[in-house]
């Protein structure tokens, strides 16, 4: 088992594939799962490189979801360590399936493509693929072993301004500058920044600022990430951001289209589930456990944790403070510490899942905590 997990890890690491093109990884993972009595369905949710692999031990038990990613980064390779996830989750699922005895349970492995780009989990959510789960677990490599305590709710938005082109010197009075709309949006958001909660992050770039300085730009586009600690509050901020852009359109006489590019939900934190993962990480021989990271971004796993209680174990395989999406992460993926992490993660996830299956009270407690955590966001408004 140990060698199989390491072989899967090393193969995926050495054959990096970009999001939605992870054909070799999916072939290897689904073949391995099928060889161990998992029923495999490929191409789910309209995504060629998404899959579901199911193992049913006995009717009437919980449904445990184990999620893995396997996409690499353009020009870098496996700089986010997704080779570790693919191998450890697959290994955990197989090991678990072989040690269930008489316990009723269904184990569902999800192959979720393109985490770094188009976020494969989002169409999988829209197709309702996670709805039947009782719990969702995943892992990620890291510079420390911990459990994510939070991730930010996020909307990625294009503000498309349309104006009217004119000669910028001969007849500027005949033009409407779409770029002015973009610039005023940036300024209005700067003023807004003072009057939102400190957890709000608003950061944008101009993706189209016009073509030539002697033409009044008839098209300009700004792209913004707007994030907050929770979805209900973020929705209130978003409306104010949209109003900033609407005001800019009104002031300049340009036409505004607000285009949603991507939406992530904040992670719904379930402490009991986090603790279960860390307890099992300790038992798997990981000695140094760190507190959750204080600064985080956003992830499509957050959207999954809005539907079902979920947690992500981070397992150290690079020195503390080493930035992800780096050559250091790529190199460590097949190093001794990478191999150690992938095995420890597989053991931790399998053992945590086993605890959830063996103790229905624990699962009930986690479900209740999940409902309470979601209600708390609403109450905080
Ligand atoms: Zn990444
Ligand atoms: Zn990643």
Automatic annotation (TrEMBL):
Any single GO CC term annotated in Swiss-Prot or TrEMBL for this entry: cytoplasm
Alphabetical list of InterPro entries matching this protein: Amidohydrolase, Bact_exopeptidase_dim_dom, Peptidase_M20, Peptidase_M20/M20A_hydrolases, Peptidase_M20_dimer, Xaa-Arg_dipeptidase
Domain Peptidase M20 dimerisation span(s) in chain numbering: 160-245
GO terms for MF: dipeptidase activity; para-aminobenzoyl-glutamate hydrolase activity
Matching NCBIfam families: amidohydrolases
Family to which this protein belongs: Belongs to the peptidase M20A family.
Protein name: Peptidase M20 domain-containing protein 2
Organism: Paenibacillus thalictri
Lineage: Bacteria, Bacillati, Bacillota, Bacilli, Bacillales
